[in-house]
Amino acid sequence: MTERHQQKQTIRLSWLGQQPPELATGVTWGVPWKQGELAREELSFGLVDAADQPVPVQSWPTAYWPDGSVKWTAHAAVMREGSSGYALRAESTAEGTGETTAPVLTVQTREDYFEIDTGKIICRVNRSGDSLIREILREGRTVCSGGELVGIREQRSQVAGANVTMEQASTGMIEQAVVEQSGPVRAVVKLKGRHRMSDNRRWLPFTVRLYFYAGLDTIRLMHTFLFDGNPHQDFVRGLGIRFSLPMHGALYNRHVRFAGDTGWFSESPKGLMLWRLSPRQRELYEKQLAGRRISFDPEQDAQLLRYLAESPEWNGFKLVQQGSDGYVISKRTQESCSWLRAAAGVRALGLVYAGSEAGGLAIGVRHFWQKHPSSLEVDGCAGDQASMTVWLWSPDAPAMDLRHYDTKTYVESCYEGASELRSTPYGIGNTNELMIWCCSETPDASTLDAMTREKEEPSLIVCAPERYHETRALGFWSLPDRSTPVKARLEDTLDELIRFYQNEIEQRRWYGFWDYGDVMHSYDPVRHTWKYDVGGCAWQNTELAPNYWLWYSFLRTGRADIF
Fold first, then answer.
1. I need a surface site. Which of 355, 360, 391, 528 has the fewest CB within 10 A?
2. 347 close to 324: Cβ distance less than 8 angstroms
3. Distance, CA of 259 to CA of 433 (rounded, Å)
4. CA distances (Å), 284 to each of 260, 271, 288, 304, 446, in order?
5. Does residue 434 contact residue 208 with C-beta atoms inside 8 Å?
6. R_g over Cα of the chain
């Protein structure tokens, strides 16, 4: 072994944004290496926290230099709440990797499903069929009895002068299931398939990845779908993921939570807010709203129990984010009855919880209001089995319309590229990210707040900009330099350009399922708007300039807002 390899390589790591996680969380990150710095066959890795205490880490190479040395490595670890900086050490294989320390995650392949045991939950993921998740158990109790992809296709026609709309439900069918990683810290399961409709047509290919971490009760879910329909006939009315939850115990000990923009919508299928309450019963009502289990005294609460017996049973709840500036929460007693408007706000934070005395699920959708129209729905709360549906495209909104804006193209006037009409949505895709918490009881408001922040900005460990720069693993570029007036002016201009586009996103409301994450191309100084209606001068559509510019801006600065 050479002297270079005998000496430990230590890489300092910090949190993106410098804020440690509020909850224990699984983190995966990457580290670049100089050419010749890390030989693939001689080194393994250890991770230590700020107190120099070892942290179990799972590591694997992701890219190599032409000489065979390692260019990039990926690492996964479980970080405890409040933990600060870390150091990654490249060590001799003789020193050990630190990867066998408990808790250890295990994956077992059964005939029909994969069983992932994190030490906190057991999740059984189907290998085929129309259900992705067969069951999730926590502490021996089922908190989720199934999970499936759901969709609604809308077809339009005219019959005898009348406009006719027909809806067809579809369910995601698994065609391929693979375990991509099996621990000991992180496991990844990939499921691929297509949606099947009642007439057996299969369309809308999907890829779902489920991420698990040792010792945690959380699951990260990444969902990607492709559109492969006819835009003149196939209108997507709804697209989502539905989970089934067993419900146990009294209705007044079952709870639903929605994250609004200024607080939490907190209700039960049997709320205690009735005609009037005594001081003792008011205290029980406050406990109920806090999600704590309540019980009654047959004598003291006899009248309240009579009122409860004849009060409505609220069976369904939903939050619908129609646009970037408005959502509505509604509830109903049963399917044959109307929805009652319960609350409204501007930008919902996109997390829902539903559960009973046996626990439940909290599910958060990243960029929920930004990628409207979206919705969260809980149904069957008063029965033995409830359903929780995360609608990535809400059926309460108009159907997805992917037709071209005209029947011909405009090459010269609108910079559209070709004389024949080539515009087609066939093959376009969209990816959405969810976080699932398997809860043993109803979380309190502060825990739900922390969940909301974690799902929106997942904790991520990064290297210092100097590390990315010195390895040259991402090419040749400079670090910020303000050593002369000219260089300082260049840096200020770069910062101002970033700030300008950040402000434009909000001012122009560049939000929506197909728009969020993109910026517009060219500005019209006469109308004082962007050229949204001038063909190739409208959206950037991930062309080279913004991608390269933003990534190198992050690499140079380490700024979380740019990332």
1. 528
2. yes
3. 17
4. 24, 11, 6, 11, 20
5. no
6. 26
Triad 389, 394, 398: Cα angle to 5°: 155
Express the helix, strand and coil content of the chain in percent, nearest 5 each. Answer: 15, 40, 40
pLDDT tens for 34-93 read 999 999 887 789 999 988 899 999 999 999 999 999 999 999 999 988 778 899 998 765
Six-digit token pair at 254?
């079952």
What sign does the dihedral 27-430-226-388 (CA atoms) show? positive
Element (H, E) at 309: helix 302-309
Q: Kindly state the greatest CA–CA separation across the chain.
A: 86
- Closest CA relative to residue 268, chosen from 376, 355, 350: 355
Burial classification of residue 118, based on how many CB atoms lie within 10 Å of its CB (0-12 exposed, 13-18 middle, 19 or more buried): buried
| pLDDT per residue as tens digits for the range 201-241 | 999 999 999 999 999 999 999 999 999 999 999 999 999 99
Over residues 153-177, mean pLDDT = 91
Residue carrying the six token digits 């100084």: 525
The DSSP secondary structure of 342-379, one letter per residue, reads EEEES----EEEEEETTEEEEEEETTTTTT-SEEEEEE
For residues 458 and 21, give the distance between their C-alpha atoms in angstroms, rounded to a whole number: 9
Query: Are the CB atoms for 410 and 535 separated by under 8 Å?
Result: yes
Beta carbons of 454 and 22 less than 8 angstroms apart: yes
Nearest Cα to 211, choosing from 221, 202, 203? Answer: 221
Distance of CA 237 to the CA centre of its chain: 21
Query: What b-and-e string marks burial along 277-286, b requiring 16 or more CB atoms within 10 Å of the CB?
Result: beeebeebbe
The tens digit of pLDDT for each residue in 272-321 reads 887 677 888 888 899 999 999 999 989 888 888 888 888 999 999 999 99
